[in-house]
Write a structure and sequence with these properties.
single chain; binds phosphoenolpyruvate; binds magnesium ion; alpha/beta
């Protein structure tokens, strides 16, 4: 038995045959022409690659939806990127073949992404490699390898590229294991969407002789066991039976109320990154969307997304949800989510710098455009907006002034919108929590961003994995702040939710019940486990003191 350990991106246990997917080895060539001929080969290959990517976009659109499909239009743009082209041409001039030049220029560009601070941008390195491999294939006239699956299998590779993912027969995939990758990699996103126990970043490659061997993926601990002994296998089999039975039992909770055993109601909403994720939220019986992270729309674009583009995305989500509430969080760009075209200054401590609403104080047009798009979408469903990173009452008043201008302008233009759309704020800085009494007079609702509230209260960088082991995520300072914010909100007749990762922490459900938190927003697969937990708790017996004293 060989054991690997990495980062689990979806909980659960998968047991099945291992299928090792190897990507093309590096280019070794072939008849090389003059630089002019090699350049011609490159341009011809690029044209074909872009055409193929456009086809893949259409294919993905009908098989997996718009958000997965978007990646191919991004790849088409990358294939025509001027930096990549310059890199390839310079290498051809220096005597390389077109194929080798494309491979090397792609590798160099990918290294630039890997060195970026932002996790999302780091994860794009694999996209650049995918694009340069596609160019190489066309230059060399090779066929793309397909992942053939004869039986349900656990797939292992260095990482899976978007092209791998779109072509997979997903009904035959039991789980993923990758050598590289992070929470933001395509493999991780797909694993969560398909609810497949998966482990990324095992920092080791699973050797080819293991192909076809039995494999266990333990998505609870991040362990991957290849060729397990009988004892381990049978204990995992019974563990899997148990977790499968629990999952099946939870399906019976679909359509049931989210309430405690003595009838205290709580909404369970979902966190989503785009309108496509709303379908997953609904499939998991999410009762609404408590956090629509609108910044992804900004991060995926090369320039500020237009009002119309934003409106279409928000409206799609609102329509999918019907009467269910959709809370759109205004863009939270900055800190670990950088978009180059914002041209933010270099900062020593970006998490403490120009981030989200702070960027808009000097550039109010960003907020104005986004609020216009959100107000327009409010005519198409049950939409609310919330603003992150608030630290003061004046900031909320500033946002409300812009909202008022938007309402006035839309009315003058005869555009439909909901005049009474709620404007909430995130409580994710200690400052906001401490003055929650004043903020509750200004905002229509609160949503606790426990990820940042923890980072800023405990002075722990949320990106630093080493600190994860040291920090007490239930530190009473955080719980006291949440409790106080809830008291302040309720005193003013406002409602309060939690949308950070603490919301899905079942050890805290009783605490949230005791604080009479009105709504918890979690990733879609956690809706039913949370509902199950909630229904086992008596509100009457729940005590917040037990957590904060
Ligand atoms: C949070 O900070 O808890 C939150 C939900 O927002 P994000 O994780 O996107 O910063
Ligand atoms: Mg946050």
């Amino acid at each position: 038995m060989t054991e690997y350990c990495g980062k689990s991106v979806f909980e659960g246990i998968a047991i099945g045959k291992l299928k090792i997917v190897r990507h093309d080895e590096s280019v070794s060539v072939i008849e090389q022409g003059t630089p002019a001929e090699e350049k011609e080969k490159f341009y011809a290959a690029r044209e074909k690659a872009v055409a193929e990517l456009n086809e893949l976009y259409e294919q993905a659109l009908s098989s997996v939806g718009e958000s997965e499909a978007e990646i191919f239009s991004m790849h088409a743009m990358m294939a025509e990127d001027a930096d990549l082209e310059d890199g390839v041409l310079a290498k051809i001039e220096a005597g390389e073949s077109a194929a080798r030049a494309a491979e090397e220029a792609g590798f160099e560009l990918s290294q630039m992404f890997i060195r970026m601070d932002d996790e999302y941008m780091k994860a794009r390195a694999v996209d650049v490699i995918d694009v340069s491999k596609r160019l190489c294939r066309y230059i060399l006239g090779k066929k793309e390898e397909k992942i053939e699956l004869n039986e349900p299998s656990i797939l292992a590779s260095s990482d899976f590229t978007p092209s791998d993912v779109v072509k997979l027969d997903k009904s035959k995939v039991l789980g993923f294991v990758t050598t590289f990758g992070s929470d933001n990699s395509h493999t991780a996103i797909l694993a969560r969407t398909l609810a497949l126990p998966s482990v990324v970043n095992i920092r080791d490659s699973i050797d080819f002789p293991f192909d076809g061997k039995t494999c266990i993926v333990d998505g609870f601990t991040g362990k991957v066991l290849v060729d397990p002994d009988e004892k381990t296998l049978s204990s995992y089999r019974s563990e899997k039976e148990k977790t499968d039975a629990q999952r099946a039992a939870r399906l019976a909770l679909i359509g049931k109320k989210s309430e405690t055993s003595d009838g205290q109601q709580m909404h369970i909403y979902c966190n989503v990154g785009n309108s496509e994720d709303v379908k997953t939220a609904l499939a998991n019986d999410g009762e609404g969307v408590g956090l629509f992270r609108s910044e992804f729309l900004y991060l995926e674009s090369n320039d500020f997304p237009s009002e119309q583009k934003q409106y279409e995305e928000y409206s799609r989500a609102a329509k999918l949800l019907g009467d269910k509430l959709l809370i759109i969080r205004t863009m939270d760009v900055g800190a670990d989510k950088q978009a180059a075209y914002f041209n933010l200054p270099h900062e020593e401590n970006p998490a403490l710098g120009l981030r989200s609403v702070r960027i808009c104080f000097d550039r109010p047009e960003i907020m104005y455009t986004q609020l216009r798009a959100i107000y327009r979408a409010s005519a198409d469903g049950n939409v609310a907006v919330m603003v992150p990173m608030i630290i003061g009452v004046n900031e909320v008043r500033w946002v409300k002034e812009i909202a008022e201008k938007v309402r006035k302008d839309l009315k003058a233009e005869g555009v439909a919108f909901n005049e009474k759309m709620q404007i909430g704020i995130m409580i994710e800085t200690p400052a906001a929590a401490v003055i929650a009494d004043e903020l509750a007079k200004e905002a229509d609702f609160f949503s606790i961003g426990s990820n940042d509230l923890t980072q800023y209260t405990l002075a722990v960088d949320r990106q630093n994995q080493q600190l994860e082991k040291i920090v007490d995520v239930h530190h009473k300072s955080i719980l006291r702040l949440i409790r106080y914010a809830a008291e302040c909100a309720h005193r003013e007749g406002k409602w309060i939710g939690v949308c950070g990762e603490l919301a899905r922490d079942l050890a805290l459900t009783e605490f949230f019940v005791a604080c009479k938190i009105d709504e918890l927003s979690v990733s879609p697969p956690y809706v039913l486990p949370l509902r199950e937990k909630l229904r086992s708790i008596s509100a009457d017996e729940a005590s917040a003191d037990a957590f904060t004293k």
